[in-house]
Amino acid sequence: MPKVPFRFRGLIAPVLTPFNNDSTRTVNLSIIPSYAEYLARKRVTGVLINGTTGEGTSMSVAERKLVAEAWAKAVKTTKQHLMVQIGGAPLPDVLELAKHAESIKADSILCLPELYFKPATSEQLTEYLRLVGQAAPNTALLYYHIPMLTNVNVHMGEFLESLGEKLPTFVGIKFTSSNLEEGARALHAGNRKYVIFLGNDQLIGAACALGMDSFIATSINMLPELAQEILAQGGEGNSIGAREKQEQLSKVVIAISRHGSWVETMKVAMSLLTNVNAGPVRAPLKDLSAEITATMASGLRGLGLQVTV
User: Fold this and answer.
1) Which residues contact 22 (CB under 8 A, 6 or more apart)?
2) Which of 47, 146, 299, 304 would you label with 6, given CA atoms 20 to 30 Å apart?
């Protein structure tokens, strides 16, 4: 078993990073305490920072540290699990971010693979994660599998089955893929030794039917109740109820994401559906026009949702 405890199961919100609407999109740390409180009121007990939704790879090391420190301070009040994504940077920076996450007492760290000299085998990925784990020897480590963006296609079931005791702090993966056959094999690797966080908003219900119980999905930010209901119905074996709630959530996700790229549209949806305004996106992403935003708002109202503007 891993030498660090990791007991969290359930829903984690991959939070958006608030930026100011200035020329360089500076980080707006002032919003983070109220953002954490909003999620806590919605019974969201875990947050992932500096991930894809959080535009982590678009920030400098110094900025990522500032965001992590602000969230670490906020969760002292809200008691949420703090997961920090540290990858998507040169290895020396990744190791520095791992050490920093441990220094601020993050509950866990999540790591993308090397994005240029990509690992092509389980052995290469294991060696990379070994270096990361050594930099934070007292913090639970998870790998971030998102092949559609990284083009790292190491099979997660085979990878987890190959590990044995090679990575003392390693506890699981964030599996952002629609390949549930691979996800199921990962889930059962090592006699269910590892936690598998599915990162696909539209497959929560299907994953519950396979026995998954943990999810990191962007829509948890603005529609946590639906994700919670899917998880509850699925956990009770009510496949029909879980499917109905999943269909509701999927309709909303499609209504949002059809207007642009994932982060661009989800950041706007957050401001339309909640009282948290995380501001603009950072280049090279582009802010949605007022016309597209109005169209999105109309579509969400058509689905029976209350839109704030």
Assistant:
1) none
2) 146
And the tokens for 298?
Answer: 């109309």
What is residue 237's predicted lDDT score, i.e. its pLDDT? 86
Q: What is the pLDDT of residue 281?
A: 98
Sign, CA torsion 216/222/228/230: negative
**Segments of the chain scoring below 70 in pLDDT:** 1-2
Alpha carbons within 13 A on the beta-carbon side of 208: 27
pLDDT of 205 reads 94
Given this model, what pLDDT does residue 126 score? 98
Q: Which amino acid is at 290?
A: A
Q: What integer pLDDT is reported at residue 309 of this predicted model?
A: 73
Q: Are 15 and 48 in contact (CB under 8 A)?
A: yes
Q: Is the dihedral of CA 10, 218, 207, 114 positive or negative?
A: negative
- Give the dihedral of Cα atoms 90, 95, 96, 97; nearest 10 deg: 90
Closest CA to 71 of 94, 42, 48: 48
Token pair, residue 154, equals 């190491």
d(CA 149, CA 115): 9
Strand, helix or coil at 273? helix
Burial class of residue 32 (count of CB atoms within 10 Å of its CB; 0-12, 13-18, 19+): buried
Residue with tokens 């007292």: 138
Considering the entire predicted model, what is its pTM? 0.97
> For position 2, what pLDDT does the model report?
54
Which two three-digit tokens encode residue 55?
């535009």
The C-alpha atoms of residue 251 and residue 297 are separated, in whole angstroms, by: 14
Contact call for residues 37 and 73 (beta carbons, < 8 A): no
CA–CA gap between residue 23 and residue 21 (Å, rounded): 7
SS3 assignment, position 180: helix
Residue with tokens 């969290």: 8
Q: How far apart are CA 170 and CA 172, in angstroms?
A: 6
CA quadruple 293, 295, 299, 304: dihedral sign: positive
Residue pair 282/25 in contact (Cβ under 8 Å)? The answer is: yes
